[in-house]
Please model this.
Amino acid sequence: FQVRGGGGARRSLVMVGSNRSLPTASVRLWLLFAALGLGRRQGHVAASRRHTGEQQTPYPRPNIVLVTCDSLDGRLTFGPQNQVVNLPNINIMKENGAVFLNTYSNSPICCPSRAALWSGLFVHLTKSWNNFKCLNPDYPTWMKVLQNDGYYTKVYGKTDYTSGHHSISNRVEAWTRDVKFLLRQEGRPTTVLIGNESTVRIMDNDWQNVDKVTEWIRYKAVHLNQPFVLSLGLNLPHPYPTPSMGEARGGSTFKTSPYWLKKVNYESIRIPKWLSFSEMHPVDFYSSYTKNCTGNFTYRNIKDIRGFYYAMCAETDLMLGKILKVLRDTGIQNNTYLIFTSDHGELAMEHRQFYKMSMYEGSSHVPLLIVGPGISGHQQILDLVSLVDVYPTLLDIAGISLPKNLSGYSLLPLLRASPKYIPAKKPRPDWIFSEFHGCNVNASTYMIRTGRWKYITYADGISVPSQLFDLIADPDELINVASKYTKITSTLDKKLRSILNYPEVSKSVHQYNKLEFTKWKESLGNNYTNIIANLRWHQSWQKDPACYQNAIENWLNSTADV
Model:
């Protein structure tokens, strides 16, 4: 296949394996199909025998490349949303492999979501509650399992699944989410245009890592005598830091150049419908307020935020294209699985919010595409899957037996290869599950989706109203039908309780938040008053510091569990 550049041009790539020019186009084409066919047959035979229990083939074990970006709305990988921006390299993966149309983050915020991806477990099982509390550095991730089984491992860019990271503001906001106050914790979402129509590289850090990956594959990977697994973590299309928010800064700036804006079809940008403040769910209002989205936004403001976000997605797509190109140039693609996904999505002003931290589709629905040996092209997989499925899939690709305690399931049985492909013995459930315990949301949140229905409940399931959405009749998730379809609501709540005792989990998170905040407060001594007043919420806090300090003391002294 061909890799498409940022300018939309299509460039045929020379097949690696010989430095001599082949005499005719027909010979070149024949060799290309022969190479691809052999790779797919070899990959399929190995996969089939893993599932049937037969002895492994002598063929080389496949390489694996996982590209995980940050904040890419999964709906952009299929219609009609993908018509608003040109993503040619995502389209290449669709043409040559599989796109999963219903993939979800297991916790729509950076660190907990990645903890689920790297551990294969739901976040309540690893107690990955927020961006500060996730996995221990020595946790047996899929990469460590592959390394112990003979894989050469390489990591570029962010992984962001271990504890102890992100800003002080971020963790304090998560710990104090139950406090009875409202403070603006983020900068107002805004747009910044830089450069000109030839400015391609905006996110320098990501591009540096992409360059390192392509160089390593081109000059190092080709000489390895063992299979490799490589992880590339990108920051884009996550919004950029906002200097006006002070030292902690947050990230509410959507930044791009005219070069990338030209990839966006502005006429196709849809302005989302907003409920009035009185109609909003109470948790949504809290999220909108803390994200600084309750002020006035013009039609143009909203359209620009969404357009600039889509332009940032287009830049991300070109980074993916560089990986596709180097795999093709070196010939490594014939024995390499490439997986592209994101930790969560981006609301981009849907539901009067930006960022993630929500179970609405823009936040929780993520991309997932796979190309590799034995995977037929143009596959659109409708099954409900989630990021915990990545762990067992990578082990399955490598031919490693799967642990029994994983929350996820291998994706390989869902992929079309040949008529002899054997499905997994363990049946995949017809639901996906996600949960959230971090900042900008004032109650632990739990979501289960099955078929057309999405059920969302909070805290103990009683103190905060639950939500039920019919995603076919109401894809924008504006009409809560929980009280209309009480039987469905009850059935899904029972299913959710069979996955976890969510009132008890909420209680555990509440206790953790109080304990961690108390330890942090005591560690500051006399500096506490000054430091807490100058976190990201400093502009709100300074209006009435005594009131907010009293609210925190009342919370610490409260005996409420959720």
Remarks:
- Residues 211 and 322 are 8 Å apart (CA to CA).
- The two ends are 54 Å apart (CA to CA).
